[in-house]
Design goal:
Number of helices: 4
CATH superfamily: SCP2 sterol-binding domain
Radius of gyration: 14 Å
Number of domains: 1
CATH class: Alpha Beta
CATH topology: Nonspecific Lipid-transfer Protein, Chain A
Number of strands: 5
Shape: globular
Structural class: alpha+beta
Strand order of the largest sheet: 3-2-1-4-5
Protein backbone atom coordinates (compact mmCIF):
# COMPACT_ATOMS: atom_id res chain seq x y z
CA UNK A 1 0.00 0.00 0.00
CA UNK A 2 2.50 2.49 -1.19
CA UNK A 3 0.00 5.19 -2.06
CA UNK A 4 -2.56 6.78 0.18
CA UNK A 5 -6.07 5.51 -0.54
CA UNK A 6 -7.53 9.03 -0.37
CA UNK A 7 -5.15 10.18 -3.10
CA UNK A 8 -6.02 7.16 -5.27
CA UNK A 9 -9.76 7.70 -4.82
CA UNK A 10 -9.40 11.37 -5.74
CA UNK A 11 -7.27 10.47 -8.78
CA UNK A 12 -9.69 7.77 -9.97
CA UNK A 13 -12.76 10.01 -9.54
CA UNK A 14 -11.17 12.95 -11.35
CA UNK A 15 -9.98 10.70 -14.16
CA UNK A 16 -13.43 9.12 -14.57
CA UNK A 17 -15.23 12.48 -14.52
CA UNK A 18 -12.59 13.84 -16.90
CA UNK A 19 -13.63 11.19 -19.41
CA UNK A 20 -17.39 11.39 -18.71
CA UNK A 21 -17.73 15.15 -18.40
CA UNK A 22 -21.52 14.98 -18.07
CA UNK A 23 -20.95 13.71 -14.51
CA UNK A 24 -18.91 16.80 -13.57
CA UNK A 25 -21.90 18.56 -12.01
CA UNK A 26 -23.26 15.48 -10.25
CA UNK A 27 -24.00 16.28 -6.61
CA UNK A 28 -23.75 12.97 -4.83
CA UNK A 29 -22.01 11.31 -1.93
CA UNK A 30 -20.36 7.92 -2.36
CA UNK A 31 -19.11 5.48 0.25
CA UNK A 32 -16.16 3.49 -1.01
CA UNK A 33 -15.32 0.31 0.85
CA UNK A 34 -11.94 -1.24 0.10
CA UNK A 35 -11.41 -4.77 1.39
CA UNK A 36 -7.87 -5.94 2.03
CA UNK A 37 -6.32 -8.88 3.80
CA UNK A 38 -8.30 -8.95 7.05
CA UNK A 39 -8.91 -5.21 6.79
CA UNK A 40 -11.77 -3.04 5.54
CA UNK A 41 -11.32 0.67 4.87
CA UNK A 42 -14.23 3.02 4.29
CA UNK A 43 -14.06 6.40 2.60
CA UNK A 44 -16.54 9.14 1.81
CA UNK A 45 -16.34 10.86 -1.60
CA UNK A 46 -18.36 14.02 -2.08
CA UNK A 47 -18.99 15.12 -5.62
CA UNK A 48 -18.50 17.48 -7.44
CA UNK A 49 -15.84 18.87 -5.07
CA UNK A 50 -13.92 15.56 -4.93
CA UNK A 51 -13.66 15.74 -1.13
CA UNK A 52 -12.35 12.42 0.17
CA UNK A 53 -12.44 11.64 3.89
CA UNK A 54 -11.71 8.46 5.76
CA UNK A 55 -14.54 6.77 7.63
CA UNK A 56 -18.06 5.54 6.95
CA UNK A 57 -20.47 7.77 5.05
CA UNK A 58 -23.90 7.44 6.63
CA UNK A 59 -25.25 10.02 4.17
CA UNK A 60 -24.00 8.19 1.06
CA UNK A 61 -26.42 7.70 -1.81
CA UNK A 62 -24.24 5.08 -3.52
CA UNK A 63 -21.92 2.53 -1.94
CA UNK A 64 -19.04 1.04 -3.92
CA UNK A 65 -17.26 -2.10 -2.73
CA UNK A 66 -14.13 -3.76 -4.15
CA UNK A 67 -10.85 -5.42 -3.23
CA UNK A 68 -8.08 -2.99 -2.30
CA UNK A 69 -5.41 -4.47 -4.58
CA UNK A 70 -7.85 -4.41 -7.53
CA UNK A 71 -8.75 -0.80 -6.78
CA UNK A 72 -5.08 0.21 -6.64
CA UNK A 73 -4.56 -1.03 -10.20
CA UNK A 74 -7.84 0.44 -11.46
CA UNK A 75 -7.19 3.86 -9.91
CA UNK A 76 -3.86 4.17 -11.68
CA UNK A 77 -4.62 2.68 -15.08
CA UNK A 78 -8.35 2.24 -15.77
CA UNK A 79 -10.39 4.03 -18.38
CA UNK A 80 -14.20 4.08 -18.55
CA UNK A 81 -14.50 0.74 -20.41
CA UNK A 82 -12.36 -0.91 -17.72
CA UNK A 83 -14.69 0.36 -14.98
CA UNK A 84 -17.73 -0.86 -16.92
CA UNK A 85 -16.14 -4.30 -17.21
CA UNK A 86 -15.29 -4.37 -13.49
CA UNK A 87 -18.89 -3.64 -12.50
CA UNK A 88 -20.31 -5.97 -15.14
CA UNK A 89 -18.22 -8.97 -14.09
CA UNK A 90 -18.47 -8.44 -10.33
CA UNK A 91 -14.98 -7.19 -9.51
CA UNK A 92 -16.65 -4.05 -8.15
CA UNK A 93 -20.14 -3.68 -6.70
CA UNK A 94 -22.37 -0.63 -6.43
CA UNK A 95 -25.48 -0.44 -4.27
CA UNK A 96 -27.98 2.29 -3.69
CA UNK A 97 -31.33 3.54 -4.93
CA UNK A 98 -31.97 2.27 -8.43
CA UNK A 99 -32.67 5.76 -9.82
CA UNK A 100 -29.13 6.90 -8.90
CA UNK A 101 -27.52 3.79 -10.32
CA UNK A 102 -29.59 4.02 -13.51
CA UNK A 103 -28.72 7.71 -13.91
CA UNK A 104 -24.99 7.05 -13.71
CA UNK A 105 -25.25 3.99 -15.99
CA UNK A 106 -27.26 5.93 -18.58
CA UNK A 107 -24.83 8.86 -18.63
CA UNK A 108 -21.84 6.52 -18.99
CA UNK A 109 -23.61 4.47 -21.67
CA UNK A 110 -24.42 7.57 -23.72
CA UNK A 111 -20.85 8.75 -23.35
CA UNK A 112 -19.62 5.42 -24.70
CA UNK A 113 -22.02 5.64 -27.65
CA UNK A 114 -20.72 9.13 -28.50
CA UNK A 115 -17.14 7.85 -28.32
CA UNK A 116 -17.91 5.08 -30.80
CA UNK A 117 -19.57 7.61 -33.12
CA UNK A 118 -16.57 9.94 -32.91
CA UNK A 119 -14.18 7.12 -33.75
CA UNK A 120 -16.34 6.03 -36.69
CA UNK A 121 -16.29 9.56 -38.15
CA UNK A 122 -12.49 9.67 -38.08
Amino acid sequence: MSEDARTLIDHAARRFVGEVTALATLKMIFEIELRGKGDVQQFRLQMPSFEVTKGPAEDAQVRIDMRREFFNVMAKEAKVPDWIEAFTYGKAHATGPSQYLKLIATVVERHQEREVTRRAKR
